[in-house]
Backbone:
């Protein structure tokens, strides 16, 4: 019989609880969907790596290894396979990377069609094919040769199909992979139309005691042919990249983990907030039913039984929201997988249910909700039967605040705030939470938008040519530079991240860095300073990726250069510290394409336009996340504001009815019961910007450690205007619903309350 009262409470306020269930279900749908999709992707990709023998790492060399070296590595348990490649222009804007079909390591997963059988056939990476509307059986042109597309597929070493590992995001339309037979590869390379010289890249598997570091040491000790010594090359090894450090193979995991942790954190916080909101409603219900509760106590009903009765509704609401959210998360798991697949290339992922989603989607929200309501309801029911029968509110002490001046409306609003302070505290927390989500979304947008607008502003060159050796002649319009890849430990991720060290000529046209640096000083870009949390005067440790040796430098100055993680020092210092000969250079910078430069000396080409395209693609790929965050923040804000203020109005129905009978007009009633709450929203908004924004800025770098950038999250003035507009529109949407409720207030409430 006691439990029927709870169902009557649910029926009497069904709209209230339906809204709470829907909000919680939406949040847990996102969390549950991400849990199941993330685990599905990780498990299927792990199986994919195993089935197609994914590499343990890869390395590049200045020259091709002879059979003797490969044989010696084989005796040490290192399996080696060539995967030489060259890049070619495709159409007007795109580039393609041509490989031979792999036989052993990182084999091709054919998703449609078959592998190429002759020199006139080619297999395309499927995302590139889709972006360029190419199907099996079509004919494409590469290096002036017509090729028939025999199949589409994916490869384990290009889960993220980036042209360079340091690229921000893959660009499916402008870069792709092609796989041909050995004869087809030689035929294409013989045209001489490759963008750069053939790259000597190898994949490896470690089957014995040798480690990645051991392999690096072995390759560094290999004797260098005489013709390369003249170019200051004292090691055959250009770079070695274990799988864990390979952004093309491991970035998807960091992306999934970040999305998963943020969605779970947000969902749990929202579940706790909803638990507090329900506890406010239940407290009011207990106050209204105190006489009935006192009667039941007098009849011998124990408090424990009453606790079970009043805990049923909040626990049920959260459980229902959790169950709906978990089920919808499973049903929408495929959408989450598809969203992830926008940036990554892997086989079709099968959506699977994982029991851990029950823990985060149902159990934890219900436990938190039960705990919050148990503490509050237990305290509320801890009264004597006689006090409950008399509706004695011993726990409600009259406010000691004395208000001597002001109009009646002003004094009444203050008294109302003091009487319902618990409700207004929960209201403030709810507004602050939802507005922090709003600030979170705009922080994400600002960081990406600031980079998109500024990334090429400081880049004065149009082409950067990375060389594998010094050419015999340098075009007149080219500027020489010494560039070296180094690494440093990142305080946010705890791992080493790559940076580009540039040796700058004092007369450089492209790097206007006034003043000389001593041998132990460097100048860093503001992008690197934000990424590594460096400041002027700091001591930074740079790791030589060739032999893992470390050198310490003092940051002399931070300069505006948002394009990438750069460190500058005079070129003579780079040569001296890292053992290059006088006059050595490995990079050419130019305002225009160097047509006269022999491609045999070119290792890769970076265009200024490529940086802008990558920035635009990064912002575009994050738009869905930004809009979901903005939409969720607005929905939570409106719902919390409406539900709690409606609750205040319901509790004040007696006073409201009296005011209507005494002739107060709608405008005056609205000013007292609705418009006065604007102050709470304003304070919550100010704190979200003043307090929440710096906190969000502080932990944001830990969320984007997979992006090789230090983003500037500073808000432009227009962002504050937009945030204010969103808050005002959301506030008025909520108050509009409340004012409609007030216009329908029942005047007979006064008569019902008379003795």
Residues:
């Amino acid at each position: 019989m006691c439990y029927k009262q709870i169902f009557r409470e649910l029926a009497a306020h069904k709209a209230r609880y339906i809204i709470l269930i829907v909000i919680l279900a939406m949040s847990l749908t996102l969390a549950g969907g991400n849990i199941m999709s993330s685990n599905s992707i990780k498990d299927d990709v792990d199986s994919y790596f195993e089935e197609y023998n994914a590499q343990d790492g890869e390395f590049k060399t200045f020259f091709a290894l002879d059979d003797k070296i490969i044989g010696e590595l084989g005796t040490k348990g290192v399996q080696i396979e060539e995967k030489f490649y060259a890049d070619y222009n495709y159409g007007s804007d795109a580039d393609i990377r041509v490989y031979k079909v792999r036989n052993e390591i990182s084999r091709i997963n054919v998703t449609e069609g078959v592998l190429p059988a002759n020199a006139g056939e080619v297999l395309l990476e499927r995302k590139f094919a889709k972006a360029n509307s190419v199907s099996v059986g079509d004919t494409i042109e590469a290096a002036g040769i017509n090729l028939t597309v025999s199949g589409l597929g994916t490869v384990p070493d290009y889960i993220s199909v980036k042209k360079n590992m340091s690229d921000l995001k893959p660009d499916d339309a402008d870069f792709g992979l092609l796989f041909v037979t050995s004869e087809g590869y030689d035929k294409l390379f013989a045209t001489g139309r490759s963008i750069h010289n053939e790259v000597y890249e190898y994949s490896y598997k470690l089957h014995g005691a040798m480690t990645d570091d051991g392999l690096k040491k072995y390759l560094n000790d290999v004797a260098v042919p005489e013709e390369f010594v003249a170019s200051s090359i004292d090691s055959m090894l250009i770079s070695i990249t274990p799988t864990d450090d390979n952004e093309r193979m491991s970035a998807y995991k960091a992306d999934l983990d970040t999305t998963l942790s943020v969605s779970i954190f947000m969902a749990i916080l929202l579940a706790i907030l909803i638990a507090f909101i329900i506890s406010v409603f239940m407290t009011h219900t207990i106050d209204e039913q105190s006489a009935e509760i006192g009667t039941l106590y007098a009849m011998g009903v124990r408090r424990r039984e009453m606790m079970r009765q009043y805990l049923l509704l909040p626990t049920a609401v959260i459980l229902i929201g959790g169950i709906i959210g978990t089920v919808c998360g499973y049903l929408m798991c495929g959408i989450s997988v598809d969203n992830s697949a926008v940036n990554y290339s892997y086989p079709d992922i099968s959506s699977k249910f994982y029991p851990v989603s029950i823990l985060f989607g149902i159990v934890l929200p219900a436990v938190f909700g039960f705990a919050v309501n148990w503490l509050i309801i237990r305290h509320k029911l801890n009264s004597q039967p006689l006090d409950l029968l008399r509706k004695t509110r011993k726990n409600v002490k009259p406010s000691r605040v004395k208000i001597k001046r002001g109009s009646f409306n002003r004094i009444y609003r203050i008294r109302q705030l003091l009487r319902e302070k618990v409700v207004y505290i929960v209201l403030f927390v709810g507004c602050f939470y939802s507005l922090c989500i709003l600030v979170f979304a705009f922080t994400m947008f600002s960081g990406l938008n600031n980079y998109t607008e500024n990334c090429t502003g400081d880049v004065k060159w149009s082409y950067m040519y990375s060389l594998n050796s010094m050419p015999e002649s340098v075009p007149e319009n080219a500027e020489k530079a010494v560039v070296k890849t180094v690494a440093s430990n990142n305080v946010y991720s705890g791992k080493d991240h790559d940076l580009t060290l540039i040796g700058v000529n004092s007369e450089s046209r492209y790097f206007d860095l006034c003043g000389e640096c001593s041998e132990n000083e460097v100048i860093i870009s503001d992008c690197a300073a934000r990424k590594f949390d460096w400041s002027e005067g700091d001591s930074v440790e740079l790791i030589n990726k060739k032999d893992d040796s470390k050198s310490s430098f003092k940051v002399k100055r931070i300069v505006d250069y948002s394009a990438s993680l750069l460190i500058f020092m005079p070129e003579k210092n780079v040569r001296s510290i890292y053992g290059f000969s006088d006059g050595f250079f490995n990079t050419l910078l130019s305002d225009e394409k160097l047509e006269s430069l022999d491609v045999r000396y070119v290792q890769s080409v970076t265009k200024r336009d490529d940086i802008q395209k990558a920035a635009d693609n990064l912002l575009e790929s994050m738009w869905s996340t930004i809009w979901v965050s903005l939409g969720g923040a607005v929905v939570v804000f409106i719902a919390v504001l409406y539900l709690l203020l409606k609750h205040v109005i319901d509790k004040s129905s007696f006073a409201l009815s009296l005011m209507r009978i005494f002739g107060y007009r709608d405008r005056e009633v609205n000013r007292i019961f609705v418009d006065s709450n604007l102050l709470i929203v304003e304070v919550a908004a100010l704190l979200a910007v003043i307090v929440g924004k710096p906190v969000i800025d502080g932990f944001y770098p830990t969320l984007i450690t997979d992006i090789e950038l230090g983003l500037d999250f500073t808000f432009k003035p227009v962002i504050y205007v937009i945030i204010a507009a969103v808050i005002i529109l959301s506030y008025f949407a909520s108050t509009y619903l409340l004012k409609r409720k007030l216009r329908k207030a029942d005047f007979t409430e006064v008569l019902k309350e008379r003795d």
The first helix runs from residue 2 to 12.
